[in-house]
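Late entry, written up from scratch paper. The run itself happened at the end of the previous shift, but nothing got recorded in the book at the time, so transcribing now.
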Amino acid sequence: MQPLTILCSTRDDDSMKARDETQVADVQQNRATFLARQGIEMNETTLVRMTYDSNNYLRYETLTSDDMGDGMTRPPTFKSDGLVVTEPGHALFLPLADCIGAVIHDPVKNIMMLSHLGRHNLEQFGATQSIKYLIKEHGVNPGDLTIWLSPAASKEHYPLYSFDNRSLHDVATEQFMAAGAMKENIEVSPIDSAADENYYSHSQFLKGNRSNDGRFVVVAMMNT
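Output as recorded:
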């Protein structure tokens, strides 16, 4: 059995984040349906609730089983840029629309983090800081980590001006390696969310190239 379950929805699964109150019921059903197909319950899952209402994009939390269902079956109680689980069977749920969902796993200590890495996070060296959090709080060895980077917008569609117009994937990989992760342990999705219409893209919606502004989701869980 693989140590992790990593799932990525598409537009066929409909949007995984509500833009306003009128969409909440439909999005809840979309989430429940998507998870149920993989045998995961909403009350076994915690939402990674990324917000843009502060200047801090390095907000990390380590969860316990009491946090199952937070933001999924009940209102969210915290804002975060990355969440950590230490027990199998606890799924993390991160809606995305161009940014990276980074699944960071320590197979030695069996600890997993799901970290949001967009422009704001990377400008604060969020990939490096995610690993530093795992080192400080959980004593991980960065060389042991395996990392998977989700579909994200390419540099052709979403260049990072603060990093010489490089891509989200390239900058995140560099930052992970700066924290001690091994390049051969970093797997990068080849999918460009801004070019592949199977995925939602906020940047393309703003340019008028997409008809709706939904979110796809990355779900990650350590298997029992």
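The beta strands are 4-8, 45-47, 60-62, 82-85, 91-96, 100-106, 111-117, 146-149, 186-188, 216-222.
(Scratch paper discarded after transcription.)
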